[in-house]
Design goal:
alpha/beta; Rossmann fold; Zinc Finger, Delta Prime, domain 3; 3 domains; five-stranded parallel β-sheet; 15 helices; 5 strands; globular
Length: about 325
Amino acid sequence: MNFIYSLDYFLLTKATNKLIKTINKNDEYEVLKFSLIEDDFNQIWDSINTFSLFENKKIVLVRDCWFVNEEKVTLHKSFNLEKLEAMLKNANPETILIFTLNSDKFSKKLKIAKTINQLMQVEKLELMSEQTIIKYITTFFAKANVNLDRKLATYIYQNLPNDMQVINNELNKLVNLSQPLTCEVIKNNLTRYLENDIFEISNCFIKNDIDGFLKLYKQYLLLNDDLFGLIGLIGANVSFIRDVKILRMTRKSSSEIATILNAHPYRIKLAISNNSSKISQLNDKIEVLYKIHKSILNGKFEVSVLPEYEFVKNMRQEV
């Protein structure tokens, strides 16, 4: 049984998929995926404790395992902590359990967190350092036979959030450009990722400034036509602001926070400027973004209309 957690969704997904591929290299397992936010816990329980219809062994991936830290994220109404503990202590030997959490927080105090540590192999994936990301960028272009020197790789890094999902998406766009890469070409293609713009959109969402948010939201989509990119960036920034706020509450200095989060001091300054929001409010915003993203992927939203409606509905509810 494995428990993997990381603040970076891309690294978390990549590590999880690699683990599943390693276990299931002979395709002898049925793979089932669930979310503790979206899915009925009784369904998860049944899937773990019953045998596969196809007589295969099972890999059950359970995402959004927020029960291991103190952050107040609302799980599905059917979630039962005692039932979870019983399930872990009496797990079906024919079922491989993988729990994941898109957060870097794992409690040292909660009883259930201690139980997870005892019964599962717990792995934390740290954010990649500046040097590692720059090396990743240069290697990415080298594999595509595109010439990119370290100066340009550093420029790309400085104009993107420290989120490997966002970075990877943008590298795929840049590597397919027909023109030679220069700072100007890169700047023109990464304008939407400049910190001031993204923090301004994020702040409007956090502060429930509907008029300001809609203005920036529509400007962004008009110029970039990339709703997934926008949702990912807002999510990354709201999470970042939350983490800075948590560290500030522990009386950490700005330089200490920059070191802990492996972030540029200017990003810390921008995050600290948002000092009126509560951690619970930020967690709620992150959950809303997750649900919008998942609903689009599942085809539940008409991309041109409903995401905007969901954003506005959330901000009106909190005013």
